[in-house]
Recover the amino acids of this structure.
């Protein structure tokens, strides 16, 4: 259920990455891209929560739910980074960090 | 002639200033002509909107709203310890507070619809910003964002990769392709010598950056100077001056009305409301049209402290006030007669590697780039809109740097102001500064970037590593600009501001919104629980029926082929102590005669419940005791009728 919340349901405190996939020639179907994103997330040990807003080809991957010790979290981060950095499908990726924003 | 019974309307000096005539947004004439923002939706991206407040509820748009902090469709603010989550509600009231409800105040665009996206009341990431900027972007026309990176005079930050992509996607695909309008507050870092060119939201070409002036027309203590600010409008000033009266939340200490809304936060929503008025009279204005109209109509005014300079195109700009005060009458009349600016043309220079030392003041490093006619041929770019410079500089103390850009006309823009509080040692890494001061000027010519170090000589010298020039504009020539200025001047009498004059508008594109997660987790959980509950009771009930039938079938009466189904106790049925189930059986008189159904549709031999009148139901199943008893031993009340069901 937490995974079904989509990218809007973010930041339960775990790691998350935004990923921009290369779009393949002739690839029109959103579902095809979604499947590629699912496979990529799985390869990185993450869960694909879905497309980020209206940005085609951009997906949010999060760490699977469940408390983990810090060492495991760090290992998971390294694994995810390694996979995303080297995967042919990934155009761009970035670990999500908190932003400071102030009301004016 | 405008009158409202809202008790605080007379104190809304920014709408109609009777104490200091002219020191308001000049909107009453627009209202008199029935331009109120009807048909336009403005969304406040903030800490929530209390849409149940009397002054907001009638204009609230749930379709345009969302709560990204709690992941549900309702952007109601949450009470907090600091009593601070009233911000979005106050901004919303400025835009669309309902008039003539004898409550509080009136909004600038009181005929528009107001939505809320709650995103500031919790952890915020780049991806969440990206979702917010495009949320319901075919419903929301204008996004009012009275927030940004810290205004502490030492932060350099803006939208990250996804936020930038979302802003760009918004102006390309939002609002049926005419482009979402993003209105941002320029920032409150004036006391820290901050400058909005260190804020990537404020210096973005995709946003309308609005600053503030106080009731006396002066730059308030909190306001920032900025070469990329488009215009200013009214807000609060120091303690002796009036602030903005608007709706407040009524949670915690709130009363539903406030007289204390201030900052550039209060200015941006007023601009958003005025843009809503523009969009009512001309819905097909593009995001660039809106910026052009602001540049063309904002009014320079007397302020000795401001460095007003008139550029080559005849537009006056000051770092303190942008192109001047927003004027609702001028904006709306200009919008009424505006035909769209041509496509966005741009020119990007190559990355110019310099690796040159930045000398101490008064000396300066000057680098140049010539943009020739040939360079602009492909795009057709003739006159400028935004001019951007992306630099990489190493320096041990970033705040000591000063950057000035000179357009071919000689117009100077202070794009990187020195900031005494910024001691960051990492310099600038591909940071983009921008200016609007060359708006309307010719694009061709030599651009000069002048960099100098205004700090202490004891520090290591800084180095300009590389820079790149980006020009945005259109194929409009300077003559076209002047023609447009004349056209607008002719419209300012208001003679076109009536229903019988309307320029044609294209319908816009049909762009479907991504709706992949219409079911929120909470809804999903509720549905699953209800489903489980239903399944459980279904299984339970089926078991009960099955076991009861088995029990009857195994009794001696049934083994002989005649099951006695006692007559149902109607009272018990009404009280709900009996189950309602009717077996598919023949009706047979106790005397052994078959009773045929009078319903020709009934299948012979079998009667379902639908073929039985209610009063004629002979209940098959009730209490266990009745099932187990042969007729001669059953309680008489169960054998009241001579007709029985025989299965």
């Amino acid at each position: 259920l937490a995974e079904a919340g989509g990218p809007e349901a973010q930041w339960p405190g775990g790691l998350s990455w935004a990923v921009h996939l290369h779009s393949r020639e002739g690839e029109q179907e959103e579902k095809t891209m979604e499947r590629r994103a699912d496979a990529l997330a799985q390869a990185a040990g993450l869960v694909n929560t879905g497309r980020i807003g209206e940005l085609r080809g951009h997906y949010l991957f999060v760490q699977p739910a469940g408390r983990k010790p810090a060492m495991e979290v760090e290992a998971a981060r390294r694994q995810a980074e390694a996979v995303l950095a080297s995967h042919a499908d990934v155009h761009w990726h970035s670990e999500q960090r908190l932003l400071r924003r102030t009301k004016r | 002639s405008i009158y409202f019974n809202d008790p605080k309307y007379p104190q809304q000096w920014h709408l109609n200033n009777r104490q200091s005539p002219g020191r308001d947004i000049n909107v009453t004439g627009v209202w008199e002509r029935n331009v109120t923002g009807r048909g336009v939706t403005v969304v406040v991206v903030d800490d929530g909107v209390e849409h149940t407040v009397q002054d907001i509820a009638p204009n609230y748009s749930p379709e345009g709203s969302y709560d990204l902090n709690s992941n549900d469709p309702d952007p109601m603010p949450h009470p907090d310890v600091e009593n601070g989550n009233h911000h979005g509600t106050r901004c919303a009231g400025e835009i669309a507070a309902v008039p003539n409800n004898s409550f509080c105040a009136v909004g600038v665009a009181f005929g528009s619809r107001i939505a809320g996206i709650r995103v500031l009341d919790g952890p915020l990431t780049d991806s969440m910003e990206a979702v917010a900027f495009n949320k319901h972007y075919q419903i929301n026309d204008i996004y009012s964002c009275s927030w940004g990176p810290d205004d502490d005079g030492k932060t350099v930050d803006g939208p990250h990769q996804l936020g930038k992509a979302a802003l760009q996607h918004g102006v390309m695909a939002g609002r049926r392709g005419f482009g979402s309008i993003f209105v941002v507050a320029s920032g409150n870092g004036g006391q820290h010598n901050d400058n909005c060119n260190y804020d990537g939201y404020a210096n973005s070409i995709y946003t309308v950056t609005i600053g503030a002036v106080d009731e006396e027309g002066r730059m308030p203590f909190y306001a920032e100077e900025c070469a990329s600010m488009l215009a200013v409008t009214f807000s609060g000033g120091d303690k002796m001056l009036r602030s903005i009266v608007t709706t407040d939340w009524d949670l915690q200490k709130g009363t539903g009305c406030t007289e204390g809304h201030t900052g550039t936060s209060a200015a941006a929503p007023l601009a958003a409301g005025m843009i809503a008025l523009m969009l009512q009279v001309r819905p097909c204005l593009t995001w660039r049209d809106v910026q052009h109209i602001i540049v063309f109509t904002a009014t320079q005014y007397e302020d000795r402290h401001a460095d007003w300079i008139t550029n080559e195109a005849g537009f006056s700009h000051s770092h303190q006030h942008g192109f001047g005060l927003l004027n609702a009458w001028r904006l709306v009349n200009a919008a009424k007669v505006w035909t769209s600016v041509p496509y966005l043309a741009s020119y990007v220079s190559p990355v110019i590697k310099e690796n040159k030392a930045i000398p101490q003041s008064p000396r300066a490093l000057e680098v140049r780039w010539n943009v020739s006619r040939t360079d602009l041929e492909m795009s057709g770019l003739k006159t400028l809109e935004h001019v951007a410079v992306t630099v990489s500089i190493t320096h041990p103390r970033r705040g000591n740097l000063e950057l000035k850009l000179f357009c071919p006309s000689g117009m100077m823009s202070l794009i990187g102001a020195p900031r005494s509080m910024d001691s960051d040692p990492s310099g600038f890494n591909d940071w983009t500064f921008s200016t609007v001061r060359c708006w309307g000027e010719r694009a061709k010519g030599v651009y000069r970037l002048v960099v100098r170090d205004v700090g202490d000589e004891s520090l290591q010298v800084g180095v300009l590593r590389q820079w790149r020039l980006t020009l945005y504009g259109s194929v409009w020539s300077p003559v076209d600009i002047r023609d447009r200025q004349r056209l607008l001047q002719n419209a300012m009498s208001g003679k076109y501001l009536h229903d019988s004059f309307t320029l044609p508008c294209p319908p816009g594109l049909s762009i479907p919104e991504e709706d992949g997660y219409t079911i929120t987790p909470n809804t999903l959980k509720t549905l699953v629980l209800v489903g489980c509950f239903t399944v459980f009771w279904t299984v339970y009930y089926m078991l009960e029926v099955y076991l009861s039938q088995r029990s009857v079938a195994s009794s001696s009466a049934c083994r002989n082929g005649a099951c006695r189904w006692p007559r149902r106790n109607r009272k018990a049925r009404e009280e709900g102590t009996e189950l309602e189930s009717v077996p598919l059986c023949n009706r047979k008189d106790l005397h052994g005669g078959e009773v045929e159904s009078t319903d020709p549709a009934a299948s012979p031999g079998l009667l379902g419940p639908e073929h039985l009148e209610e009063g004629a139901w002979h209940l098959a199943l009730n209490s266990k005791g009745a099932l187990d008893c042969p007729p001669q031993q059953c309680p008489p009340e169960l054998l009241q009728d001579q007709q029985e069901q025989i299965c």
Q: What stands out?
A: The beta strands of chain A are 16-21, 47-51, 58-62, 90-95, 102-103. The longest strand of chain A covers residues 16-21. Chain A has two helices and five strands. The CA atoms of residues 15 and 63 of chain A lie 6 Å apart.
